[in-house]
Structure formats: C-alpha cells, structure tokens
Amino acid sequence: MTFAVHGIAVARGIAIGRAVLMAAGRADVAHYFIEPGQVEAEIDRVRAGRNAVVEEIHRLQQTISQMGPKEAPHELGALLDVHLMLLQDEELIAGVKHWITDRLYNAEWALTTQLEVLSRQFDDMEDEYLRERKADLEQVAERILRYMKGVPSPVAQPPAPKRKTQQDLLLDDSVDVPLVLIAHDLSPADMLQFKQSVFAGFVTDVGGKTSHTAIVARSMDIPAVVGARSASQLVRQDDWVIIDGDAGVMIVDPSPIILAEYGFKQRQAELERGRLSRLRHTPAVTLDGQKIELLANIEMPDDAPAALKAGAVGVGLFRSEFLFMGRHGNLPDEEEQYLAYRRAVEGMEGLPVTIRTVDVGADKPLDESRRDEAHLNPALGLRAIRWSLSEPDMFRTQLRAILRAAAHGKVNLLIPMLAHGGEIRQTLSLLDFARAELDNRGTAYGPVDVGAMIEVPAAALAVRTFLKYFDFLSIGTNDLIQYTLAIDRADESVAHLYDPCHPAVLRLVADTISECVRQGKGVSVCGEMAGDTQFTRLLLGLGLRSFSMHPAQILAVKQEVLRADSTRLAEWAQRVIESEDPAALMAA
Ligand code: PEP
Ligand code: MG
C-alpha cells in the first residue's frame, strides 16, 4: 500500500529505487556490487567466516568445560549455545545467499542486510526472552564481519554505480536497479564514505537542514531527506521508494500512476541540468556588469575536479576536518596533511583554495565513540578553533602543512568560530610560531591571506575588531543562524525554527558585508545560504560579490546572477532586511 513519510528536504531531485535499510553503526561496511562470476566466491567468504566463528565458539566451549563454575558461570555456556544456534540458523545463511545471488551485493553488505531483516523479526516477537536474542544475533554477525575483514574480497575495485532512468526501471527489475539508503542516523563521516557509493538517494530519521550529514549529502548531488522521524521503522528492506528531495517526502510502495508522475519529474530535472550545464563557461556577471565570484565548498581533495567541472573559480571553503574524522585518535601528521592540501591546490589548477582549519565538535565528532561523551551542549563546547587552541601541537602541525601547501599555489587560511580578541591573537601567534618552525627546519612554504569565519553573533557584532587582524572574512551562515537563534542545526525537533530569514540573522549578515565593503576587505558567504537560489538576489543586493557553495549548486546560482541587476536590488534588499517579515517581501 502506498504511503508517504515527510521530512526535511536537503538535497534536490528525485530518486526512485529499492530501499536498503542500514542498521545503526553499519556505515563502515563496504557496499558495492559484484560481478555475476564472483557470486560463489562471495558466498564462500561468508561461509568461511561463519565456520571460523563456529570453530572459535567450539574452542571456547572446550576451554570453559575445563573451568569451575566460579571462573566460567553457567550463563556463559548457555550464551555460547545460543550463538551457535544462531550461526547455524538457515534463515541467516539463506538470506545472505539471496542478497549475493539475486542482488549481487558484496558479502559484507549481504550479511548486514540480512541482519537488518532478522532484527525486525526479533523486534516483532511477543516473547521478551526471544526479543532480547537480537543482541546475540548482532554479536554473531559482528564476529563474522570481523573475520571477513581479515579476508579481502576477490573484487578489487567496487564498480561505479549505474544511474537508471524511470523508463529503464519499468522495463527492467534486475539486479542493478538504483538503491536508496534509509537509516536512522548517519554521521558526517559515514556519509562521506558513501560519496563513491552505489546509492541514488538517502533518507534519515534524524537531522536538520544544515546538519553536517545533510551538507555532505548535498555535496553528493543526490536527493536526500532528513528528519523523517520513523522512516527507518516504516520501510522494509527492498521496498520500492521514491525520494522527492525538493519536497522532503519519501513515498513508499508507489502506485504505477505515482511512479509515472515522478518519472516525468525526474526527466524534467535532467533536462534542466542539461540546460544549466551550458552556463559552465559563462562568466558570472550581473546585468549591470558586476563580476561575481562563485567558489566551491569541498570536503576532500578529490572533490577538486567536480569543482572545476562546475565552473568554480576557486575553492572558498575546504572543510579540512574530514581528513581528521573516523581515525580513532590517529590524527593525520604534517606530511599526510601537506600532501592532501597540495593535492587540492594542484587539483584546482592554479585557482585559489581557501583551507579552513579543523572544525570538529558538535555534530562532527572526531570518532563515533566520542559522540556520546557527556558534553551537555557540544555545539557550545570545545569545537573548531576552541579545540585547536586547546591542542596547540596538533594545530601548529596543521598550520605548517597548510603553509607548505601554499608553496604550490594560491592558498588562503580560514579560521572557524572565533569570538574573542584573545583567541584571534593566540591563533595569529601560533601561525607565526608555525612559520618560525618551518624557517628553522629550512622547509619551503608560501604566503597565505588569513581570514576569519563569522559564525557567532559576537563575531558579527565585533566585525571591526576582526577586520583589524584579518585579510578577509567568510560568513558561515549555518552556524550564525544556529547561534543567533539558539537552534541546534542538527535537531529535527526544532528545525521549523531554524530561519535564515529571521531579521536578526539578516541584520548580522548585512552589517558584516557592508563593513567589509566599506573597508575594501574581501567578504564571502560560505554557509548553505550562498548556494540557495532563494537568497542570491538578496545577498547581491546587500553588496556580496563572493559566494561559496557545493559545486552542484554553482550553475543555478550563476543563472540567478546573470538575471540580476545589483544596483536595483540594493534598495530592495534594504527594505527586506528592515521588514518584520523578510520572507514575505522576498517571495513577493
Ligand atoms: C557554516 O557554519 O556556515 C559553515 C560554512 O561551516 P560548517 O557548515 O562546516 O559548520
Ligand atoms: Mg560552521
């Protein structure tokens, strides 16, 4: 039966495909398709994994049979019996075989998919004892996965995903239909892992529009909906679903009429993309001759080609923290960072690259295990520059790596979340220190312009102090909105109050831009507002000439720029920001 689940639209477009339900914490499992000739080898890997775990349990049973009841309580033996029983359960292995044979999933993916199917069955059980056996099942699967990690897949490279049209879908329901991922939650680092993956769309139960998970989804340029509450409970593995990333809706088990309608929308969107791609080489100039800089936000050096392809004239925000996440405390050293930054600089072929120093904390923990650390309010805690200043060795290592990369092209250094004059001075003296260390070592490095992000209301209000110290400013509207309105950007329960059009937010943005313009200093917006075409005219009217956004948004924003007359927009923009209801005036 067809039904719809509503959430928050975060990445545009329509995806039609089969649901892949992801259990929490399963994002580290590889997801790719195998070739039909590799089916047997993949089944053998799972079988070998299972047999190895069975043997391990037999050995354990023998060991504990020689122990007394004190060293090995009776419950331990009973627990091992349950694990053995689960391992030999036909439904587990038959299900795994099905996902490998019929859907050509790799072994790990097949195992976790079947685990999810069985977990649901356990959840539905009346008997509490049986219901609790779900945890045992998870432990058993975890052991098999751990064993399989040591035995690499015979498939060397996951093949690239195939994108299918609606027409293909209706004609062909074979193994390579598009897949959409449905999860309760995905961390930004999980999401990044999916960048090269097979999925054509995402839905998560939690998250806000500018949560970092949503930001990474948007950078992948595939439809995504977050904050869809119980989506992961309502959908079953392999259900047909439509993700409408424009409306923030997921339609489950669509009827043929609905499928046809969305197929039409999908084709329209493809046509629109084709039309926009013609603007790639067109300079971004307004009708009244103002040159506008359209820059790209990137998460990894490998994103540089997509930025160039979209016609970006540089990188306005390289979120360097993605190099630091999911490393289990083993942070990248100077050489590794230098090579990564250099790759981004060289990848941009002479265009400028703005590297932001590490911004971890809040919804970007260094490691998943740290997520639950008892911080009462992580968004207000040791995040971004605050963390960097509390780890001066780590910070100087990063600064040295960035300075060294600046020997290979134009690099700007950007500091996140500054609020205090003391933090500014400390940051700049560590930068001097990093330069002195390179001088002492005789290591080559290049010049950098140094900029600050305006993300905290205090920074926007103290913009003149900031301009005394910095060459340029970049307005991080995602956080500026969060901190001005006291709305956690990752919390779907207050997402309706997260309002870029709030007069207080617009006032801070407008005053920051006008002070920079007055002093002749560079200013850009690198939050999500910059890539949202609803705000292009307003920001142009406020005097902004530099926008940084996901590569996929550049051409749509350029189209708005080409149609705009900034002189005429200036007076209108002032009226908008002075209004009690700016959104209404903007829509008029
Ligand atoms: C912002 O806050 O607007 C920004 C660009 O930084 P991030 O989204 O990474 O916090
Ligand atoms: Mg920010």
UniProtKB/TrEMBL annotation:
Superkingdom, natural source: Bacteria
Record's GO cellular component terms: cytoplasm
Domain Phosphotransferase system enzyme I N-terminal: 6-133
Pfam families: PEP-utilisers_N, PEP-utilizers, PEP-utilizers_C
Domain PEP-utilising enzyme C-terminal: start-end pairs: 276-564
Binding-site residues for Mg(2+), renumbered to this chain: E455, D479
Swiss-Prot/TrEMBL catalytic activity: L-histidyl-[protein] + phosphoenolpyruvate = N(pros)-phospho-L-histidyl-[protein] + pyruvate
Enzyme class: transferase
Chief location of this protein within or outside the cell: cytoplasm
Residues bound to phosphoenolpyruvate: R319, R356, N478, D479, R489
SUPFAM superfamilies for the chain: Enzyme I of the PEP:sugar phosphotransferase system HPr-binding (sub)domain, Phosphoenolpyruvate/pyruvate domain, Phosphohistidine domain
Subcellular location: Cytoplasm
BP-aspect Gene Ontology terms: phosphoenolpyruvate-dependent sugar phosphotransferase system
Active site residues per record: H212 (tele-phosphohistidine intermediate), C526 (proton donor)
GO molecular function, one term: phosphoenolpyruvate-protein phosphotransferase activity
Cofactor: Mg(2+)
Domain called PEP-utilising enzyme mobile: residue spans: 179-248
Family from the record: Belongs to the PEP-utilizing enzyme family.
Name of the featured protein: Phosphoenolpyruvate-protein phosphotransferase
Species assigned in the record: Ramlibacter albus
Species lineage: Bacteria, Pseudomonadati, Pseudomonadota, Betaproteobacteria, Burkholderiales
Gene: ptsP
